[in-house]
Amino acid sequence: MEKAMHQTHNMSYAEYGSNIDYMMNVEKKRQKEFEQSQKIIASLDRQLHK
């Protein structure tokens, strides 16, 4: 997991956990990506059930 964190965000879990501003930006980005994926899924679902 540490390797994935470093590859994705260029920092370790310790650095991530100690930088609240960076952590908030990452979490906002994750939330936005999640919401976009939910919209795509809903759109595909509507198309499949026409």
Walk me through this protein's architecture.
The longest helix is centred in the C-terminal third of the chain and has 29 residues, at 20-48. The protein has helices at residues 2-9, 13-18, 20-48. The protein contains 3 helices and no strands. The model has no long low-confidence stretch (mean pLDDT 86).
Summarize, please.
This protein has 50 residues and is mainly α. Helices cover 86% and strands 0% of the residues.
Largest sheet: none
What is the mean predicted local confidence, pLDDT?
A: 86
Q: What pattern of helices and strands is seen along the backbone?
A: HHH
Total beta strands? 0
Helix content range = over 70%
The gyration radius over C-alpha positions equals 16 Å
Structure keywords:
mainly alpha; single chain; 50 residues; 3 helices
